[in-house]
Amino acid sequence: MKVAIYIDQPEILKRYKPVNSHTHKGIQGHALIIGGSYGKIGAVSLSSKACLKTGCGLVTVFIPRCGYKIVQTANPEVMVLTDLSVKYITRIAFDFVPQAIGIGPGIGRDIETHTALHRFVKTNKTPLVIDADALTILSQNQQWLTFLPEKTILTPHQKELERLIGEWDSVAEKFEKTVAFSKQNNFVIVMKGAPTYIIDGETIYKNTTGNAALATAGTGDVLTGMITSLLAQSYEPVDAAILGVYLHGLTADIALPKTGYQAFIASDVIKNIGKAYLSLEK
Ligand SMILES: NC(=O)C1=CN([C@@H]2O[C@H](COP(=O)(O)OP(=O)(O)OC[C@H]3O[C@@H](n4cnc5c(N)ncnc54)[C@H](O)[C@@H]3O)[C@@H](O)[C@H]2O)[C@@H](O)CC1
Ligand SMILES: Nc1ncnc2c1ncn2[C@@H]1O[C@H](COP(=O)(O)OP(=O)(O)O)[C@@H](O)[C@H]1O
Ligand SMILES: [Mg+2]
């Protein structure tokens, strides 16, 4: 395995772009988060809130109708578009041009959602982050991979990675297969775990923040919102992935002395994004 580049504060400061004092919401990026299904609207609610809290100017979600009141109530700052279907996404449509799209949190694996995802990837040209059930659907339809834009960011956990690249017999083989998959498709792979690695072709980055408090429902959905936010704010895809993973881990390191491992939940990641950013400016 090639030597990994450690992602620590000096590496982050090479990439981090502070906010310009003359900016306005119209140029801070408009992100679209597509996901949710009956019982898993929370995933989109968390993801879209994290997207806003990471600095994106405008955030819209596209969800099934059952999520409308939930997201509008939980996150009044987020705009909401709905599918015609109540429980699942069946046809993705929106009438604006986002700077980045995050797709997958809570989207489910209904067969009609497979069709919606197929139609979407065939026509989409917007920079993309793909997570969760959208990754699982893609794993089952690998001929769709050629439709994805260059440097699409995929954020699999270990099981989702296995569905994409197949089983491995050793850690070295896991990296070999992931590097090959990244090179073949020109994707950025966020290989989530403890620690998380970011793989961009032959280049491997190893994150240095985060702890076991993150082993709780929804923290991956939050990460998707954070990376989508940075992509919408014009970070290069690999930098959006690196900075997103670093800040995400840092929230858990900051919160740990107050929450302990057990009481930390995905909303605590979101609560601590501000402190994570502030620590970069110290
Ligand atoms: N509040 C919500 O609405 C939540 C919705 N979620 C959504 O639920 C859907 C299913 O996601 P899941 O990831 O639970 O289901 P998956 O079936 O995709 O993956 C979970 C399976 O992978 C295994 N696994 C092996 N190694 C793992 C690792 N390192 N990390 C995580 N799992 C590992 C688990 O044991 C389990 O069998 C996704 O769309 C996701 O976004 C979850 O994120 C939980 C919270
Ligand atoms: N023990 C751990 N140490 C550090 N980070 C962890 C640990 N367990 C999980 N994480 C992080 O938490 C997140 C979990 O993502 P994921 O499994 O997709 O959760 P969900 O789908 O519930 O949102 C990933 O960013 C992963 O790296
Ligand atoms: Mg997940």
UniProtKB/TrEMBL annotation:
It catalyses: (6S)-NADPHX + ADP = AMP + phosphate + NADPH + H(+); (6S)-NADHX + ADP = AMP + phosphate + NADH + H(+). PROSITE patterns: YJEF_C_2, YJEF_C_3. One of its GO terms (molecular function) is NAD(P)HX epimerase activity. The keyword NAD applies. One of its GO terms (biological process) is nicotinamide nucleotide metabolic process. Residues 8-280 form the YjeF C-terminal domain. InterPro entries: Carbohydrate_kinase_pred_CS (IPR017953), CARKD (IPR000631), Ribokinase-like (IPR029056). Its EC number is 4.2.1.136. The keyword Lyase applies. (6S)-NADPHX binds at A43, G106, H157, D221. AMP binds at K192, G193, A194, P195, T196, G220. CDD domains: YXKO-related. Its cofactor is Mg(2+). Pfam families: Carb_kinase. Keywords: ATP-binding, Lyase, NAD, NADP, Nucleotide-binding. Catalyzes the dehydration of the S-form of NAD(P)HX at the expense of ADP, which is converted to AMP. Together with NAD(P)HX epimerase, which catalyzes the epimerization of the S- and R-forms, the enzyme allows the repair of both epimers of NAD(P)HX, a damaged form of NAD(P)H that is a result of enzymatic or heat-dependent hydration. Homotetramer. Belongs to the NnrD/CARKD family. This is ADP-dependent (S)-NAD(P)H-hydrate dehydratase.
